[in-house]
Amino acid sequence: MTDQLEPVDETTKYKRKIDNTLARFSAAHDELEAEERERRERREKLVARLEQTRTKLHRVVTAATSVVGARGSAISDAKDEKPEQDESDKPAPQTRLQEKKERKNHRLLLATRITAVALAVLVFLATGIAWGAKTWFNSKFNEIAALDENSTDINNVAGQLGDENFLIVGSDTREGAEAEDHVGDTSGIPGARSDTVMVAHIPKDRKRAVIVSFPRDLEISRPDCQRWNPETGEYGEVIEGADTVKLNTAFTVGGPQCVTKVIQQITGMKINHFVGIDFQGFKGMVDAVGGVTVHIDEPMRDQELGLIVAETGDVKLRGDQALNFVRARKVYGDPTFSDYGRMQRQQEFMSSLLRATLSSNVLLDVGKLTSFVNAFAASTFGQNIGVDQMLTLAQSMRGFDAGRVTFLTVPTVGEANERGNEVLLEDDTAELFHALIENKPLPGEEPASPGTKGDTEERAADGTREATPA
């Protein structure tokens, strides 16, 4: 320690500062030690009190047990008692304190039993309510037979375990259309056609999503299919297959099952979810999720529908405006003034709607889920799209970056042939779907170099891939 009478120079000031600091540390240490001592004393007192309480409780239980045993013995002995039994053999009468303790223990035991029964009833009711809610939700979905998961057209079945492949079909049925929609009605345009066909592929690792669109005029060889009645959802007689027909005829003739067959033949993918969307009824579903945001570079005007969107930039679409956005086919400014521009818009819109459907904001919020289920049930039909499947998928996609979505159009020649059909580029198509099935980089993507695992996914998610030009 320094002497306070030393000459005060810089060195002395520094030493005194150190001495003061040490003194403060020492005082703080003493305070902490005193506090710790007090805590130890409080803990010891608490332990002692708990031990006393435990001992008293043990004595009460022992006494109660002894009383009950004594009473039981007395009753048993009374049954066998002989008239000449000596008075000294009878148990001593209970004291008032023992009787009071026995009554108290009896009430405690009764209360415990009542509590256990009440808890069991509550658990039963909670389980029943949860089961009933799930049953109610599932009953809302319009289940239609659509899948063929054992098809011989599926490639590398084992390699596709864990993948989720949604076949999404947008139906242009005029059922429910209003006059102001300018799309006609069922008397003039009966039945239903697949105005939109796309596959949403989510691999097992959930690191990305790829959405592939198919032109409705894609030329296909339609297999034998059962005729489908869109009003009842039932299948009937077998319709013989046909060559060089349009893809949308598969839905018109054979409904969901026929479209699934065709898409599995083209892609080799195992379709394990089918979602049919009625364009006239999906407006409520869009509103239930709060609208869908799309990017508009310039005001959107269609030759038949007129001005659809006047704003530019990121615009949230709802109701009729959303319906016209996905239906418009002859939009001024589209390079081809045909179905390719519409497919690009549908890709953006439908992928946004799909992500909203799978988000926890909808699936795990009771109020939003109820509104969405009602709207979803009114506008969709399909198979393997119940509550269990959606919740499982949402759980597995937790942490999934919504921006990791790649949009593609199945490779075609780009020009209609003499039959007015789009012709598939078979080699390019096979390469694309092989990459998806094997979870490898898509055509045009560079494979990740050593030490840069995940780069491929990052490059694939940087933005929307261009659709095949017309």
Characteristic key phrases:
16 strands, LytR/CpsA/Psr_CW_biosynth, alpha+beta, 470 residues, 2 domains, 6-stranded mixed beta sheet, Aminopeptidase, disordered C terminus
Distance between termini? 91 Å
**Under the CATH scheme, which architecture of the largest domain would be assigned?**
3-Layer(aba) Sandwich
Could you describe the largest sheet, including whether it forms a barrel? 6 strands, mixed
Note the run of SSEs as H and E.
Answer: HHEEEEEEEHEHEEEEHHHHEHEEEHH
Based on CA inertia axes, which overall geometry fits?
extended
Strand content: 15-25%
Percent helix: 40-55%
Structural class: alpha+beta
Query: How many independent structural domains?
Result: 2
Residue-averaged pLDDT: 74
So how many helices?
11
Look at the structure and name the CATH superfamily of the largest domain: LCP protein
Please tally the β strands and state the result. Answer: 16
Give the strand order, joined by hyphens, for the main sheet.
13-8-1-2-3-14
Taking all Cα atoms into account, the compactness measure Rg is 38 Å
Q: CATH fold name of the largest domain, please?
A: Aminopeptidase
The low-confidence parts are 67-76, 78-82, 174-191, 451-470
For this structure, what is the CATH class of the largest domain?
Alpha Beta
Pfam families: LytR_cpsA_psr
Family: Belongs to the LytR/CpsA/Psr (LCP) family.
Protein name: LCP family protein
InterPro entries: LytR/CpsA/Psr_CW_biosynth, LytR_CpsA_psr
